[in-house]
Design a protein that fits this description.
The protein is 49% helix and 14% strand. The chain is of the alpha/beta class and 213 residues long. The protein has a domain of 108 residues: P-loop containing nucleotide triphosphate hydrolases (Rossmann fold). The chain has a 5-stranded parallel beta sheet with strand order 2-3-1-4-7. Strands 5-6 form a two-stranded antiparallel ribbon. Helix 2 packs across helix 3, helix 4 runs parallel beside helix 5 and helix 6 crosses helix 7. It is globular and about 50 Å long. The protein starts with a strand and ends with a helix. The structure holds adenosine monophosphate. Adenosine monophosphate binds next to helix 2 and helix 3.
Length: 213
């Protein structure tokens, strides 16, 4: 099964992608995670992406398309995949179609996560994670036992720099201008499935499972 997860920042698509990939044995490819890792390691890709990410803007299409193409052509995604955070522009969606056609791969469904702006700002301003084990927390709904400290390993929790409110608002604007048009692109391809994402993670997962099975 080959899926694309589409939706604004904070809609929970990353969390759901991890769960679904584990359940169905799919490869989960988050372009945001790949870029954050590149920034952390100071690779040429990371150095180029860093400024765009800090401002909540998209990195140039060419950078990200090259990255996905290498993962498709080296067979890395052949047991089925969830693309999380890619494509994010119409040119990226067109490039993906070309790359998949060339390699004889088809997309099964594009899941579009739907959520209100106010809920996004609320969720992201309370989002914390553990830099050691990657566990996620959400204040005040999902607090660690000791504030600021990971329950699993005692590491100090961190926030993503682009979860700061002014950057979140920019990311939402960027989503509306550059990513929303992809919804029509996939609707025209009869691949679009809309998912109500403003519910608890377990409820969203249940709906997701019923949509892909
Ligand atoms: P995410 O973790 O998906 O919210 O992505 C974090 C940041 O990485 C975004 O705000 C962009 O700066 C960058 N990014 C991730 N995926 C893409 C993409 N497909 N195209 C352009 N920029 C991306």
């Amino acid at each position: 099964m080959n899926l694309v997860f589409l939706g604004p920042p904070g809609s929970g698509k990353g969390t759901q992608a991890v769960r679904l990939a584990e359940k169905l044995g799919l490869v989960h490819l988050s372009t945001g995670d790949v870029l954050r890792d590149a920034v952390k390691k100071g690779t040429p890709l990371g150095l180029e992406a860093d400024g765009y990410m800090k401002r909540g803007e998209l990195v140039p299409d060419a950078l990200i398309v090259g990255l996905i193409e290498s993962r498709i052509t080296n067979g890395d995604l052949s047991r089925g995949f969830i693309l999380d955070g890619f494509p994010r522009t119409v040119p990226q969606a067109e490039s993906l179609k070309g790359m998949l056609d060339k390699n004889g791969v088809t997309l099964d469904t594009v899941i579009c996560f739907k959520i209100a702006d106010g809920e996004v700002v609320k969720r992201l301003s309370g989002r914390w994670f553990c830099p050691k084990c990657n566990a996620g927390y959400n204040y005040p709904a999902q607090m660690p036992k000791t504030e600021g400290v990971c329950d699993n390993d005692g590491a100090s929790l961190q926030r993503r720099p682009d979860d700061e409110e002014s950057v979140v608002r920019n990311r939402l604007e960027v989503y509306k201008k550059q990513t929303q048009p992809i919804v029509d692109f996939y609707r025209a391809e009869s691949l679009l499935t809309e998912l109500e994402a403003q519910k608890s993670p377990d409820e969203v997962f249940e709906s997701l499972l019923s949509q892909v099975s």
